[in-house]
Amino acid sequence: MAGIWRFLGAVVVSLALVGGGSVAAFAQEREQILVFAASSLKDVLEDAGAVFDQTHNTDTEFSFGGTQTITRHVVAGAPADLLVTADDAWMEYAVRNGVLVDDSVVELASNGLVLVGSQELDAMPVELEPEALQAALANGRLAMGEPETVPAGRYGKDALINLGLWESVAQRVAPVENVRIALAAAARGEVPLALVYASDAQVEQGVRVLAKIPQDSHDPIVIPGALTSVHSKSGVEFLEFLKSAEGQEIFRVHGFKVSGD
Predict the structure, then answer these.
(1) What Gene3D superfamilies does its record include (predicted)?
(2) Residues 200-219, mean pLDDT to the nearest whole number
(3) What is the pTM of this model?
Protein backbone atom coordinates (compact mmCIF):
# COMPACT_ATOMS: atom_id res chain seq x y z
CA MET A 1 0.00 0.00 0.00
CA ALA A 2 2.83 2.36 0.88
CA GLY A 3 4.28 1.70 -2.56
CA ILE A 4 1.06 2.86 -4.25
CA TRP A 5 1.06 6.12 -2.31
CA ARG A 6 4.70 6.75 -3.20
CA PHE A 7 3.81 6.17 -6.86
CA LEU A 8 0.86 8.60 -6.73
CA GLY A 9 2.99 11.17 -4.96
CA ALA A 10 5.58 10.91 -7.71
CA VAL A 11 2.87 11.47 -10.35
CA VAL A 12 1.67 14.61 -8.57
CA VAL A 13 5.20 15.99 -8.33
CA SER A 14 5.75 15.22 -12.02
CA LEU A 15 2.59 17.08 -13.01
CA ALA A 16 3.65 20.09 -10.97
CA LEU A 17 7.07 20.11 -12.62
CA VAL A 18 5.65 19.76 -16.13
CA GLY A 19 3.22 22.59 -15.52
CA GLY A 20 5.98 24.81 -14.19
CA GLY A 21 3.92 25.60 -11.09
CA SER A 22 1.61 24.21 -8.44
CA VAL A 23 -0.87 21.39 -8.88
CA ALA A 24 -3.63 23.95 -8.19
CA ALA A 25 -2.48 26.06 -11.14
CA PHE A 26 -2.28 22.97 -13.33
CA ALA A 27 -5.86 22.03 -12.50
CA GLN A 28 -7.29 25.56 -12.78
CA GLU A 29 -10.64 25.62 -14.56
CA ARG A 30 -10.93 27.49 -17.82
CA GLU A 31 -12.98 30.69 -17.61
CA GLN A 32 -16.13 30.79 -19.73
CA ILE A 33 -16.76 33.72 -22.09
CA LEU A 34 -20.23 34.11 -23.62
CA VAL A 35 -20.66 36.31 -26.68
CA PHE A 36 -24.06 37.23 -28.11
CA ALA A 37 -23.54 38.00 -31.79
CA ALA A 38 -25.30 38.46 -35.13
CA SER A 39 -25.71 35.36 -37.30
CA SER A 40 -23.65 36.92 -40.09
CA LEU A 41 -20.62 36.90 -37.76
CA LYS A 42 -20.71 33.19 -36.94
CA ASP A 43 -17.68 32.02 -38.93
CA VAL A 44 -15.36 34.92 -38.17
CA LEU A 45 -16.10 35.01 -34.44
CA GLU A 46 -15.84 31.25 -33.98
CA ASP A 47 -12.42 31.33 -35.66
CA ALA A 48 -11.37 34.30 -33.53
CA GLY A 49 -12.57 32.54 -30.38
CA ALA A 50 -10.61 29.39 -31.22
CA VAL A 51 -7.40 31.39 -31.75
CA PHE A 52 -7.95 33.38 -28.54
CA ASP A 53 -8.58 30.25 -26.45
CA GLN A 54 -5.28 28.73 -27.60
CA THR A 55 -3.33 31.38 -25.67
CA HIS A 56 -5.74 32.03 -22.80
CA ASN A 57 -7.25 29.86 -20.08
CA THR A 58 -10.71 30.36 -21.59
CA ASP A 59 -13.56 28.62 -23.39
CA THR A 60 -15.23 31.20 -25.62
CA GLU A 61 -18.82 30.32 -26.51
CA PHE A 62 -21.35 32.07 -28.71
CA SER A 63 -25.09 32.59 -29.01
CA PHE A 64 -25.88 33.62 -32.59
CA GLY A 65 -29.14 35.03 -33.94
CA GLY A 66 -30.68 37.99 -35.67
CA THR A 67 -29.21 41.25 -34.38
CA GLN A 68 -32.61 42.37 -33.13
CA THR A 69 -33.10 39.09 -31.25
CA ILE A 70 -29.72 38.87 -29.53
CA THR A 71 -29.81 42.54 -28.55
CA ARG A 72 -33.23 42.18 -26.98
CA HIS A 73 -32.01 39.13 -25.06
CA VAL A 74 -29.08 41.12 -23.64
CA VAL A 75 -31.40 44.00 -22.71
CA ALA A 76 -33.66 41.48 -20.98
CA GLY A 77 -30.75 40.27 -18.83
CA ALA A 78 -29.03 37.46 -20.72
CA PRO A 79 -25.64 36.82 -19.00
CA ALA A 80 -23.42 37.70 -21.96
CA ASP A 81 -19.91 39.14 -21.65
CA LEU A 82 -19.95 40.78 -25.06
CA LEU A 83 -22.54 41.95 -27.58
CA VAL A 84 -21.54 42.14 -31.26
CA THR A 85 -24.21 43.37 -33.68
CA ALA A 86 -24.49 43.74 -37.45
CA ASP A 87 -25.23 47.46 -37.24
CA ASP A 88 -24.88 50.41 -34.91
CA ALA A 89 -28.62 51.15 -34.58
CA TRP A 90 -29.28 48.08 -32.42
CA MET A 91 -26.08 48.69 -30.46
CA GLU A 92 -27.39 52.18 -29.67
CA TYR A 93 -30.63 50.55 -28.49
CA ALA A 94 -28.59 48.49 -26.00
CA VAL A 95 -26.72 51.62 -24.90
CA ARG A 96 -29.99 53.48 -24.27
CA ASN A 97 -31.21 50.60 -22.13
CA GLY A 98 -28.15 50.80 -19.87
CA VAL A 99 -26.89 47.21 -20.30
CA LEU A 100 -23.42 48.02 -21.69
CA VAL A 101 -20.25 49.42 -20.16
CA ASP A 102 -20.03 53.13 -20.90
CA ASP A 103 -17.59 53.99 -23.70
CA SER A 104 -16.85 50.32 -24.47
CA VAL A 105 -18.54 50.33 -27.90
CA VAL A 106 -15.95 49.94 -30.65
CA GLU A 107 -16.15 49.46 -34.42
CA LEU A 108 -14.61 46.08 -35.23
CA ALA A 109 -15.16 45.93 -39.00
CA SER A 110 -17.47 46.90 -41.84
CA ASN A 111 -19.28 45.03 -44.59
CA GLY A 112 -20.92 45.31 -48.00
CA LEU A 113 -23.95 43.88 -49.81
CA VAL A 114 -24.20 41.56 -52.80
CA LEU A 115 -26.82 39.67 -54.77
CA VAL A 116 -26.18 35.92 -54.90
CA GLY A 117 -27.67 32.91 -56.65
CA SER A 118 -27.20 29.16 -56.63
CA GLN A 119 -23.82 27.84 -57.75
CA GLU A 120 -25.33 24.47 -58.61
CA LEU A 121 -28.02 26.04 -60.80
CA ASP A 122 -25.36 28.08 -62.61
CA ALA A 123 -26.97 31.44 -61.80
CA MET A 124 -25.80 34.19 -64.13
CA PRO A 125 -24.65 37.76 -63.31
CA VAL A 126 -27.43 40.34 -63.00
CA GLU A 127 -27.37 43.98 -64.06
CA LEU A 128 -28.76 46.36 -61.46
CA GLU A 129 -31.66 47.45 -63.67
CA PRO A 130 -35.40 46.85 -63.06
CA GLU A 131 -35.94 44.73 -66.17
CA ALA A 132 -32.84 42.62 -65.59
CA LEU A 133 -33.74 42.03 -61.95
CA GLN A 134 -37.28 40.98 -62.82
CA ALA A 135 -35.99 38.64 -65.50
CA ALA A 136 -33.57 37.03 -63.06
CA LEU A 137 -36.36 36.51 -60.53
CA ALA A 138 -38.68 35.00 -63.17
CA ASN A 139 -41.42 33.36 -61.05
CA GLY A 140 -39.27 33.25 -57.92
CA ARG A 141 -38.65 35.58 -55.01
CA LEU A 142 -35.86 37.74 -53.61
CA ALA A 143 -34.78 36.50 -50.17
CA MET A 144 -33.49 39.20 -47.83
CA GLY A 145 -33.59 40.20 -44.19
CA GLU A 146 -36.88 41.65 -42.98
CA PRO A 147 -36.48 45.36 -43.89
CA GLU A 148 -38.10 46.76 -40.74
CA THR A 149 -36.07 44.88 -38.11
CA VAL A 150 -33.09 43.05 -39.67
CA PRO A 151 -30.02 45.22 -40.40
CA ALA A 152 -29.21 43.50 -43.72
CA GLY A 153 -32.83 43.99 -44.77
CA ARG A 154 -32.82 47.66 -43.83
CA TYR A 155 -29.55 48.32 -45.65
CA GLY A 156 -30.79 46.27 -48.60
CA LYS A 157 -34.09 48.13 -48.92
CA ASP A 158 -32.33 51.50 -48.72
CA ALA A 159 -29.90 50.41 -51.44
CA LEU A 160 -32.67 49.15 -53.72
CA ILE A 161 -34.64 52.38 -53.23
CA ASN A 162 -31.60 54.54 -54.00
CA LEU A 163 -30.81 52.44 -57.08
CA GLY A 164 -34.38 52.78 -58.34
CA LEU A 165 -35.02 49.04 -57.98
CA TRP A 166 -37.32 48.70 -54.98
CA GLU A 167 -40.64 49.17 -56.78
CA SER A 168 -39.73 46.46 -59.28
CA VAL A 169 -39.12 43.84 -56.55
CA ALA A 170 -41.15 44.96 -53.52
CA GLN A 171 -43.95 42.47 -54.21
CA ARG A 172 -41.45 39.66 -54.79
CA VAL A 173 -39.49 39.96 -51.55
CA ALA A 174 -39.30 36.96 -49.21
CA PRO A 175 -38.38 38.58 -45.83
CA VAL A 176 -36.52 36.36 -43.36
CA GLU A 177 -35.41 36.57 -39.74
CA ASN A 178 -31.68 36.84 -40.47
CA VAL A 179 -29.37 37.06 -43.44
CA ARG A 180 -28.01 33.51 -43.09
CA ILE A 181 -31.49 32.14 -43.81
CA ALA A 182 -31.56 34.13 -47.06
CA LEU A 183 -28.09 32.84 -47.91
CA ALA A 184 -29.09 29.21 -47.32
CA ALA A 185 -32.24 29.61 -49.44
CA ALA A 186 -30.14 30.80 -52.38
CA ALA A 187 -27.57 28.04 -51.92
CA ARG A 188 -30.31 25.40 -52.01
CA GLY A 189 -31.90 26.96 -55.08
CA GLU A 190 -35.12 27.74 -53.22
CA VAL A 191 -34.96 31.33 -54.46
CA PRO A 192 -33.23 32.64 -57.60
CA LEU A 193 -31.75 35.65 -55.77
CA ALA A 194 -30.78 36.63 -52.24
CA LEU A 195 -29.49 39.93 -50.93
CA VAL A 196 -26.78 39.20 -48.35
CA TYR A 197 -23.58 40.56 -46.85
CA ALA A 198 -20.41 40.28 -48.92
CA SER A 199 -18.78 38.30 -46.11
CA ASP A 200 -21.62 35.73 -46.20
CA ALA A 201 -21.11 35.11 -49.90
CA GLN A 202 -17.44 34.36 -49.24
CA VAL A 203 -18.08 31.59 -46.70
CA GLU A 204 -20.95 29.84 -48.54
CA GLN A 205 -19.59 27.72 -51.38
CA GLY A 206 -23.10 26.99 -52.67
CA VAL A 207 -23.63 30.52 -54.02
CA ARG A 208 -21.98 32.82 -56.51
CA VAL A 209 -22.00 36.62 -56.49
CA LEU A 210 -24.25 37.92 -59.28
CA ALA A 211 -23.97 41.65 -58.54
CA LYS A 212 -22.20 43.91 -56.06
CA ILE A 213 -24.34 46.60 -54.46
CA PRO A 214 -22.60 50.02 -54.65
CA GLN A 215 -21.35 51.14 -51.26
CA ASP A 216 -22.74 54.65 -51.75
CA SER A 217 -26.30 53.33 -52.19
CA HIS A 218 -26.72 52.69 -48.44
CA ASP A 219 -25.37 53.84 -45.09
CA PRO A 220 -22.02 52.33 -44.03
CA ILE A 221 -22.48 48.81 -42.63
CA VAL A 222 -20.65 48.93 -39.30
CA ILE A 223 -19.89 45.93 -37.04
CA PRO A 224 -19.74 47.22 -33.44
CA GLY A 225 -18.83 45.26 -30.32
CA ALA A 226 -19.18 46.19 -26.65
CA LEU A 227 -18.86 44.85 -23.10
CA THR A 228 -22.01 44.18 -21.15
CA SER A 229 -22.44 45.36 -17.59
CA VAL A 230 -21.91 41.77 -16.35
CA HIS A 231 -18.74 41.06 -18.33
CA SER A 232 -15.79 39.07 -17.00
CA LYS A 233 -12.11 40.02 -17.06
CA SER A 234 -11.58 37.54 -19.88
CA GLY A 235 -14.41 39.20 -21.78
CA VAL A 236 -12.39 42.43 -21.72
CA GLU A 237 -9.38 40.55 -23.06
CA PHE A 238 -11.38 38.96 -25.87
CA LEU A 239 -12.73 42.33 -27.02
CA GLU A 240 -9.16 43.68 -26.98
CA PHE A 241 -8.10 40.67 -29.07
CA LEU A 242 -10.80 41.40 -31.66
CA LYS A 243 -9.45 44.96 -31.91
CA SER A 244 -5.82 43.82 -32.20
CA ALA A 245 -3.89 43.36 -35.46
CA GLU A 246 -4.31 39.59 -35.16
CA GLY A 247 -8.04 39.85 -34.58
CA GLN A 248 -8.48 42.35 -37.40
CA GLU A 249 -6.68 40.03 -39.80
CA ILE A 250 -9.20 37.30 -38.99
CA PHE A 251 -12.00 39.69 -39.94
CA ARG A 252 -10.20 40.54 -43.17
CA VAL A 253 -9.70 36.89 -44.11
CA HIS A 254 -13.45 36.36 -43.72
CA GLY A 255 -14.31 39.09 -46.20
CA PHE A 256 -14.88 42.03 -43.86
CA LYS A 257 -13.25 45.41 -44.25
CA VAL A 258 -11.18 46.69 -41.34
CA SER A 259 -9.42 49.93 -40.49
CA GLY A 260 -6.81 50.72 -43.11
CA ASP A 261 -8.48 48.85 -45.98
Answers:
(1) Periplasmic binding protein-like II
(2) 95
(3) 0.83
